[in-house]
Amino acid sequence: MAESAARTRKKRHFLKALAETGNVSEAARKARLDRSNAYQIRRQDQAFADAWDDALDMAVDLLEAEARSRAVEGVEQPRFHQGRICGTVRKYSDSLLMFLLRAHRPETFREGRDAGSEDLERHLKGAKEKLAARLKALSPPATLPDDESDGTDPVPERDQ
């Protein structure tokens, strides 16, 4: 059975709105389609389900482009003096920039690790080994039984 022209039009409007908003409820409202019907069509029509996924990908691409713009190009914000706009200042988002870097270069910018962490780990290992050697030098040697004592002081002398 052929799909009605009205249903085809609603599906097309829904997908367009979904790509623009990334929000199923908003897309359904704009397409004048009940939200539950949209999900039902998705379950029954694989081509529609694939187009739905593509529309959500496009919506995320728009969000990423906006995040990149705010991070790199910044946003003009008005400055006021005595209640009147006296100019603007361009504000950039370092946090959005970091999110983008973590998303696209996680091996370099993942949280909790920095680019020089292997060097830091090597340095810490060396420091731990030096500390262990110093502690060993400070600890008294095992004492000999009284009859085996050679009469020397059992505490080693330290460099001063």
Percent helix, as a range, is: 55-70%
Range of strand content: 5-15%
What is the element string, with H for helices and E for strands?
Answer: HHHHEEHHH
Q: Sheet with the most strands?
A: 2 strands, antiparallel
Shape: elongated
Please report the number of helical segments. Answer: 7
The average pLDDT value, as a whole number, equals 84
Q: How big is the Rg?
A: 34 Å
Unreliable residue runs: none
Q: How many runs of DSSP E, i.e. beta strands? A: 2
Class of secondary structure makeup: mainly alpha
Major sheet strand order: 1-2
Distance between the termini: 98 Å
Commentary on this structure:
This protein has a domain at 7-64. 62% of the residues lie in helices and 9% in strands. The chain contains seven helices and two strands. Strands 1-2 form a two-stranded antiparallel ribbon. The longest helix is centred in the middle third of the chain and has 28 residues, at 46-73. 8% of the residues are buried. The model has no long low-confidence stretch (mean pLDDT 84).
Brief overview, please?
With 160 residues, the chain is mostly helical. It is built from 7 helices and 2 strands.
Key terms:
two-stranded antiparallel sheet; 62% helix; mainly alpha
